[in-house]
Amino acid sequence: MGFDFDNPTNRLETDSIRWDTFDSKNVLPLWVADMDFESPPCIIEALSKRVENGVYGYTHSPDGFNRLIAQYVFEQYQWKIDPDWVVILPSVVSGLYTSVQQLTNSDENVLIPNPVYHHLRLACSSSNRLFIEMPLHLNKQRWLIPFEALPSLLTNKTRLALFCNPQNPGSTVYTHEELKTFGNFCVQNNLWICSDEIHAGLVLDEAKKHIPLASISTEIAQRTITLMSPNKTFNFPGSGLAWAIAENPLLRKAIQVGLHQTIALPNLFAYTAASAALKEGEPWRQELIQYLRLNRDLIQAKINGLDSLSIGKMEGSYLAWIDCSKLNHINPHQLLLDAGLATSPGSQFGNSNFVRLNFGTQRSRLNQALDILTSVA
Asked: Residue 2: pLDDT band by 50, 70, 90 thresholds?
């Protein structure tokens, strides 16, 4: 079955954060990480059927939902988990905040990567937890953890490591050996781990596959909360959900603090969409990956031809982490915005010399964006 990802969707007047923040007549908005594609037909059909029911009362997780997740995780990542290890959450972000609040005390600190998705930092600062940054470095065009420097970063108050795989914004898909090295370091230093793996279904590098950090060993799994969600992969974050996987019952208890209280559970449409995605969404996902790979190749070729911009390997996700330091501009994000392209500012992720470009869009729009990049380069 063929899916038309080139179809030009219109997101105006749909209350889209990405498309309503800037003047769409003058600015192409490729920033916030949702895609411009319609969700898979199986999700649209399932939601339509649920709407036609006409009654939208209080809901609970569908029967067998945790088993469905366990089956999906095994099929996709060859990771065998017990359905009882799964905790349903409204979002990966809520899981990040809860992990920091529950797995550290106020006088303890957290190890996080830099650059990284900004909510990993905010989860610490909003809870008044100090954080120590692991400065990722480019090695053969991949953003890697500074393994040799890790021991020197720790203090006797470091209790938790936040991790991101595939890496956002750098898009690295970590190898088994890299994950083993990091996981064992955390075990040896008595650190809890919270691993954000929301982009697990979006591996673009044909030679790579997503490996959950907790799947490496029982010792690592006993210290790890894994956060996953179909929201990004199947493009329904506006009515999405997430799940935490924790083999250790202490961690399962910790991640559930606040649920039904200050943290609401997913709504009935989120359960409907997620169930459809996990059961029937794989053909659509496979074609999406092929489309995103071609978008990635287009970006790589264009930027490689420009002296003032550079980019590492894009192994996973639909997010391009573009180095603009050779532009010699104090604010590359504003420079591009003034030229008509909205990206996410690199300062949001820890480095203001970069911008993050969302290429989960139609190729015609991506070509417009690349023309703007060329005009300022």
From this structure: confident
